[in-house]
Amino acid sequence: MSLRIRVNGAAAECRASGALWLDGARALIVADLHLEKGSAYAARGQMLPPFDTAETLSRLETEVEALDPTLVVLLGDTLHDAAAEARLAPEARARLACLANRRRLVWVLGNHDAAGPGPLPGEALADLELEGLTFVHEPRPRAAPGEVAGHLHPCAKLKGRTGRLRRRCFVTDGERIILPAFGALTGGLNIRDTAFAGLFSRAPLAGVLHGERVHPVAFAALAAD
């Protein structure tokens, strides 16, 4: 079950996959896919399962099939590094081409993929304006009503009866929102970390991903460590 919210007045849906859906614009937004992260680590001698790109694309394809968007926004750090495009398998390239078929595909540039997607399908932009919202990769370090960003890989720590749980999450104060990382091998940063300090005008709400649901959790209920 998703969580329906408003961001700067725009209706939005936080999906259990970690994607954001704007029904009015038929737009699907995902952040921080970090495609080919596994192969980047393998090149440095740290062996990770080599299936992260395929798994991440499968999750994205599932959302596209369910929602049939006219616009897909990749909110930065879609590729893990500047050489990731060259490491993509032909099958992954074909899957990205299918995602761009009959719909607009926008790559918002991030710090990991500042050079853009190269010959891959879609258009590269520094930011995108849509429905009174501004889509960027990295949150601006000041009040930014209407901003939709990624980059920080937000996660929440919750106190449970059997210990503490750590889960990816959306984080919003109703004016701006930061999306969780969508990629299969991406880590997370506790939203109580100082990196989030000053980004919100009031105590934010966490939309915590757990199974097939997005659970709204008050900031005060989250654990710091």
Question: Could you give a short description of this structure?
Answer:
The chain is an alpha/beta fold and 225 residues long. It contains four helices and 16 strands. A hairpin with a 2-residue loop joins β8 and β9.
Helix % is 10-25%
Number of domains: 1
User: What kind of oligomer do you see?
Assistant: single chain
Q: Which strand-content bin applies to the residues?
A: 25-35%
Distance between the termini: 27 Å
Report mean pLDDT, rounded to a whole number.
Answer: 92
Task: Could you tell me the CATH topology label.
Answer: Purple Acid Phosphatase, chain A, domain 2
Largest sheet: 9 strands, mixed
List the secondary-structure elements in sequence, H or E: EEEEHHEHHEEEEEEEEEEE
What sort of overall outline do the alpha carbons produce when their principal axes are compared? globular
The number of helical elements comes to 4
**Highest-level CATH class:** Alpha Beta
Write the CATH architecture name. 4-Layer Sandwich
Number of strands: 16
C-alpha-based Rg, rounded: 17 Å
User: What class do helices, strands and sheet pairing give?
Assistant: alpha/beta
Low-confidence spans: pLDDT under 50, at least 5 residues? none
Can you tell me about this structure?
The protein is of the alpha/beta class and 225 residues long. The protein has one domain (3-221): Purple Acid Phosphatase, chain A, domain 2, CATH 3.60.21. 16% of the residues lie in helices and 32% in strands. It has helices at 37-43, 52-67, 84-87, 90-99, and strands at 3-7, 10-14, 20-22, 27-30, 71-74, 104-108, 123-125, 128-130, 133-135, 147-149, 154-160, 163-172, 177-178, 189-190, 205-210, 213-218. α2 packs parallel to α4 (90-99). It starts with a strand and ends in a 7-residue tail after the last strand. The model has no long low-confidence stretch (mean pLDDT 92).
